[in-house]
Amino acid sequence: LKACTSMGALAQGKQIHACIVESRFVSHVFVGNTLLDMYFKCGRVADACYVFKKMFVRDVVTWTVMILGCAQHGHGVEALKLFWQ
Description:
Blueprint: H1 2-7, H2 10-23, H3 29-41, H4 45-54, H5 60-72, H6 76-84
Helix pairs in contact: 2-3, 3-4, 3-5, 4-5, 5-6
C-alpha cells in the first residue's frame, strides 16, 4: 500500500484493499490508517471516508489522517467536526 500511495497507483491500491477485506485484515488499525493515507493522497476523499466509517478501532493517527485529509481537500467544515469529536 505504501508503494501504491507514493506512486499514485490507485488501481493497484484498490486491488490490495479488496484482498485486505477478503482476508479480514481491515480490523487492524495500522492497515486502516494506511488505506486512509492512500485514498487521501490519491484524492479519493469519499473512499477514505468509507474506510474510516468501517474502522472498528481508531487511534490518534486515524483521527489525524482524517482531519488533515479532509482539510487538504477542501472539506474544512468536516475536518473541524472530526476534530471536535
